[in-house]
Amino acid sequence: MSIRPRAMLDLTGALDFRTDRFQLRPLSVEDSPVLFRHLSDPAVTEFMDIDPLQGEDEALAIIGWAMGIRERNAGLRWGIRDRDGEFLGTAGFNTIELERGRRGEVAYDIRKASWGQGVMGEVLPALAVFGFQGLGLRRLEAMVTVGNEPSCRLLERHGFEREGVLRDHGFWKGGFWDQVVYGRLAT
Ligand SMILES: CC(C)(COP(=O)(O)OP(=O)(O)OC[C@H]1O[C@@H](n2cnc3c(N)ncnc32)[C@H](O)[C@@H]1OP(=O)(O)O)[C@@H](O)C(=O)NCCC(=O)NCCS
């Protein structure tokens, strides 16, 4: 995979790319049926800040959010598909901060049937290349709900350090949630 460094941030252009096994394309409205199916699985959303989706309109709202942050150069979310075009999940940057920092918050969700096959093990390094080399970020971070051990292990395997716990950082599903902050620097 090769991503050319960008002098200025512009997330509105063609940002499709491939890794060895997967193709990534920024989420768009055509993804709503598969995104709905994917995020209606309670196993997938267990540690996420959303309830399992009840309808495709909710998937469209998430896609609207993803398209909005992209238009504002404030974040980017790709859909991940295999070489046959099968939808496997999403990954990207919930936030990109370039004015008062050089950091991006990574986030990801893979369908349960594809867990443990190295999907994120292949996609996360590509996100790091995109963030550090493509966007010139200094810091990547991730917020992980306490208890989501597979996500913690994934980040630790890829050079992220556990920096601390933010107590009652999130509020969703009717309760407060502690979150672990992970960070990885460009150095
Ligand atoms: C956390 C999550 C993203 C991990 O994605 P993944 O694609 O399953 O990650 P990987 O396959 O790269 O790694 C998962 C495990 O499979 C193992 N693995 C990777 N490739 C493998 C392979 N070819 N064969 C067997 N095992 C493999 C990894 O070593 C890892 O093991 P571990 O968890 O015991 O350390 C996924 O579980 C998920 O989407 N969960 C629900 C949504 C979520 O919680 N998102 C994160 C919010 S912070």
From TrEMBL:
Residues 1-187 form the N-acetyltransferase domain. PANTHER family: RIBOSOMAL-PROTEIN-SERINE ACETYLTRANSFERASE. This is Ribosomal-protein-alanine N-acetyltransferase. The keyword Isomerase does not apply. It is an enzyme of class 2 (transferase). InterPro entries: Acyl_CoA_acyltransferase, GNAT_dom, Ribosomal_N-acetyltransferase. Its EC number is 2.3.1.267. The keyword Acyltransferase applies. Keywords: Acyltransferase, Transferase. It comes from the Bacteria. GO terms for molecular function: protein-N-terminal-alanine acetyltransferase activity. It comes from Caulobacter ginsengisoli.
